[in-house]
Write a structure and sequence with these properties.
Order of helices and strands: HEEEEEEEHH
Largest sheet: 5 strands, antiparallel
Radius of gyration: 14 Å
Oligomer: single chain
Shape: globular
Structural class: alpha+beta
Low-confidence stretches: none
Length: 105
């Protein structure tokens, strides 16, 4: 599939958070969002064509495709688009979006 594709897939699989909601609509293919549960364990969510997922701001997560290695997804935004992932690290644990998420859950 090429090195650019491989790098993008690796980037999505790094555990990270966003400072805004991540809203994804799956147009085709299948994949998995892994999100951190209340006890910091991984919870795997399988998504396929027609599925919609909304991840709250501040939740740690990662994404990977299934064995077919193909997915086509649309990312939707409530406000101005923000694409910046903040990889899990002590600094991101102190991020206001992360702290807000923990207060709500």
């Amino acid at each position: 599939m090429g090195s650019a594709y491989e790098e993008k897939v690796k980037m999505f699989f790094n555990e990270h958070l966003h400072e805004d909601e991540e809203i994804r609509y799956i147009l085709d293919g299948e994949g998995f969002f892994d999100v951190r549960g209340v006890d910091d364990e991984w919870v795997r969510i399988h998504l396929g064509k027609g599925d919609l997922i909304i991840l709250p701001a501040g939740i740690y997560h990662r994404f990977t495709t299934d064995s077919k290695n193909y997915i086509k997804a649309l990312r939707l935004f409530k406000d101005e688009p923000k694409w910046t992932p903040l990889n899990r690290a002590p600094e991101s644990d102190g991020n206001p979006a992360r702290k807000g998420y923990l207060r709500r859950n």
